[in-house]
Amino acid sequence: MKINPIDITWSSLFRILAVLILAVTAYYIREVFVILFIAIIISSALHTPVQYLERKKIPRVLSVLMIFLIALAIVSLIVYAVAPVLIIQLKYFLSNINELRIPLLDSFGTSDAVSQLNGQLNQWLNNLFYGGSDIVGFITSFAGNVLFVFVAVVLSFYLSISKGGIQRFIRSVMPIEKEEYAIDLYKRTRRKIGRWFTSQIIISFFVGSLTFISLLILGTDYALLLGILAAVLEIVPYVGPIVVGIVSFVVILPESATLAFIAVIIFFLIQQLENHVLVPLIVGRAIGIDPVMIVIAILAGGELAGLTGALVAIPVAIILQEIIDDWSLKKTQKLKSS
To answer: Which keywords does this chain's UniProt record carry (predicted)?
Structure first.
């Protein structure tokens, strides 16, 4: 049997080395790509309203500035309205957490697992109230996340005011033969990502408001705190409400076991409303992705890149679906022509 020799040239080795260097570099600066991707998502969401204002003869820069100022004003008003009550509820929770912990753990009986959990809670509370590396780490992490969001928002502003800026960027990095397809893919996914972003804000507001009103009617001390938590975690569909439901049960249980179980039932009903009405009606129509695929995408994104991966999972799924649909269409056309 004749074995054909493999001819490996120096140029091939250099190409492989260059690809490896690029891959390693991309891994170490992956947060930069995530910031850019989030900025593109925000810019995509603003594309339709900016176009509408441009048709009304308002310059693009002024249109984008108006939208950002309105968004900033809304966020500022919300913070101004809820911050005092939220701080009071948070202070009350932190000051009573040690007293809440004892009846909560007693309700689970005595076991090695409960004792271990109690020890971990003691350590966490000591770090929380008496300082330590955990507090420094928390502050550092929080400041880093704030900077992360700020940079993404600023970058989205510049992407929005630059008409065709992303298309020019695509042309600069893509091979000539792939330019038109990449730009067409971007335009299609931009519309879907923009609709998804808008629908997600609507659902987050609805779920947060419904949670707050329901817990307020129950008379729990942490209605606003848990309502805001529900709205924030709703940016991770399906998973967010489950986490809030568990947190609510743990927080409310020391107040009243009955209220805690009623709260769980309320969160179950809210999640069913979200899963069977809100997501199919709003998100499903906006992006055209099956809810099961959305869940798989979120879980995969979370496994690969933590919370950040879960946040960008749906936009990535939108892009991948468009690519797969294009590939399937080309394959079908090729089979028909052959």
So the answer is: Cell membrane, Membrane, Transmembrane, Transmembrane helix, Transport
